[in-house]
Write a structure and sequence with these properties.
single chain; Urease, subunit C, domain 1; Diaminopimelate Epimerase, Chain A, domain 1; TIM Barrel; 8-stranded parallel beta sheet; about 30% helix; about 20% strand
Length: about 550
């Protein structure tokens, strides 16, 4: 009896992203039992039966499902569906932001929660919302996830006063008399977030479901949520709690989770990470929270642990080898310790603990000095355990020379980077870092030439989850005000960017044998675009290339009605 396919797509331009044949194309593709069953017009024609669904691509591109390897799923879902949105287009100055938050309804718990303000657009944030909504606690999270603004009532409820001491790895912005202005950065955010009532499941669950559908409509089938767990109060909006982790497990067990999600646990926030907290987290059993629940690990799994080595340049908390910014500071590691030497030693202990637990470490490092010591700590941890293989990786990353990239390639250390952040925050980063350092920021082509396995990710809600914008940003390397230089040596091609969001992102997940490419036997995670993949000279056409169909494991999770 003929073994017919469940679905075939014909008249297509199938970009297989086959790692053994990177330029392999096909005109048709067949799917059966959730896997790729055949490629090419001739083979697919023999697999088309009376009950096979046939889709005419009309020349459109078929690509593997997009894998956003650094997307804060829980926080982005809340930003999109759970909080008051401070949209820069609708609120282009602080007066307009004040109007938005003053008009916003409070939640059932009495708190007003907002998200999305951007200091790069609005200017200095300190103090701007301090006197809003008297009597009602207000907190507004910024677009980077590294700052928040609170009003007087929120500060009062959190017990933050002039006497509140400075925080390891964080900043409590103050007036001349020492009183807080309401701006809390990095590790100091936890002072406020821990005082807030938790987001109820009745709010979080529909937000996750709605956002999952939005991601599928973009062609996204996989992602890594980098930082869920007990230290979530020190990251983004604090919504990524252990309760959120448990909710993801409930959704997966009930077959409601159609995204493939890898999770990095967070045992210390954006300041003050230390070996004791990580050791306690690793021994807590949280890493086994999805075990014995019948959950497919390719659908939802604990992949490893996220560690914040430093902060970000615009806050002056990135650790650089040369001074930068108005304060002309080097910054420092935000790891616990009284000196650079102590902090580096503590970082090594942390990575050794994660590696020895058999888990992957994702290390946030935005300064070149932080990146260099993080890479050396990963190498040392792997040697201590008798070999590499955990695929530890640098998140964001900056490089003062080619040596660190060469070390990463030699030791199988990955690199997760964010071209759209570079584009959207590029103007302020250029001012902070200087033209020379900014021109080398996110050296994608150098990483490619060095043999580093890198991926491109959105870091949503810091930027849009629309991967098409990320691809364009990687190809053009523009900023908001300045077009990318045609001769920029760190540009990559559109198809190299696509590989970084499919097969190379799957490598980070230890799943390149399962997903990320469209070859027979691989999982049928794919999306069909309305038009062919554009040439690099016209890469902006990708922005108007509609996602007609998204399959996750052969299941249609999005289908355009147009």
């Amino acid at each position: 009896m003929q073994d017919f396919a469940d679905l075939v797509i014909v008249n297509a331009a199938v970009h297989t992203m086959d790692p053994t044949r990177p330029h392999r194309m096909a005109s048709a593709i067949a799917v059966k039992d959730g896997r790729i069953a055949g490629l090419g017009r001739h083979e697919v024609s023999h697999m088309t039966g009376p009950n096979t669904t046939v889709i005419d691509a009309a020349g459109g591109a078929v690509i593997p499902g997009i894998n956003d390897a650094h997307l804060h799923f829980v926080s982005a879902a809340m930003a999109a569906h759970g909080y008051v949105r401070v949209d820069p287009a609708a609120a282009p100055d602080w007066a307009a932001v004040v109007d938005v938050v003053n008009a916003a309804p409070a939640g059932e718990d009495g708190w007003v929660r907002a998200h999305g303000w951007d200091e790069a657009i609005l200017g200095t944030a300190s103090g701007n919302l301090l006197d809003c909504r008297p009597g009602a606690p207000l907190v507004a999270f910024d677009s980077t996830g590294h700052q928040l603004l609170a009003n007087r009532e929120a500060l009062r409820r959190a017990g933050i006063t002039a006497e509140t001491p400075d925080v390891d790895g964080g900043v409590v912005a103050r007036n001349a008399d020492g009183s807080p202005t309401g701006l809390l950065q990095d590790g100091a955010m936890e002072l406020l977030s821990r005082a807030m009532p938790p987001v109820p499941a009745s709010t979080l669950r529909p937000a996750l479901m709605n956002f999952q559908q939005e991601l599928h409509a973009l062609g996204i089938t996989s992602l890594t949520d980098p930082g869920l767990g007990p230290a979530s109060a020190g990251l983004m909006d604090g919504a990524g709690s252990t309760a959120a982790l448990e909710l993801l497990g409930d959704l997966a067990a009930a077959d409601k989770l159609t995204l493939r999600i890898n999770v990095l646990m967070l045992f210390a926030g954006t300041g003050g990470a230390n070996a004791r907290a990580v050791a306690d987290g690793l021994s807590s059993g949280l890493g086994e929270c999805f075990a014995d629940r019948g959950i497919d690990p390719q659908q939802l799994r604990i992949a490893g642990v996220k560690v914040f080595a430093d902060g970000i340049p615009r806050s002056g908390t990135a650790w650089m080898s040369e001074p930068y910014g108005k304060a002309c500071t080097h910054g420092s590691l935000v790891i616990q310790g009284a000196s650079d030497e102590e902090r580096v030693k503590e970082l090594n202990k942390i990575l050794e603990l994660i590696n020895d637990a058999g888990l992957q470490a994702g290390v946030h490092a935005t300064g070149d000095a932080a990146t260099a010591v993080a890479v050396q700590a990963m190498i040392a941890a792997s040697k201590n355990a008798g070999g590499a293989g955990k695929r530890h990786y640098v998140i964001h990353g900056a490089f003062s020379d080619a040596d660190t990239l060469a070390s990463m390639a030699a030791h199988g250390i990955g690199y997760s980077t964010n071209p759209l952040i570079r584009q959207e925050a590029g103007d302020i980063m250029r001012r902070v870092l200087g033209e020379d350092r900014f021109s080398h920021h996110q050296p994608l082509h150098s990483a490619l030439e060095a043999g580093v396995r890198f991926n491109l990710a959105s870091d949503a809600p810091v930027t849009s989850a629309d991967w098409r914008r990320t691809v364009v940003a990687a190809v053009r390397r523009a900023t908001r005000s300045t077009p990318g230089a045609p001769g920029d040596p760190e540009r990559i091609t559109g198809l190299q960017a696509l590989a970084a969001m499919t097969i190379d992102a799957a490598w980070q997940d230890h799943a390149e044998h399962v997903k990320g490419a469209l070859v027979p036997g691989m999982t049928a995670d794919l999306c069909l675009l309305s038009n062919p993949w554009p040439a690099d000279e016209e890469i902006e056409k990708l922005l108007d290339n509609e996602v007609r169909l998204t399959l996750s494991g052969g299941r249609a999770v999005h289908q355009s009605t147009r």
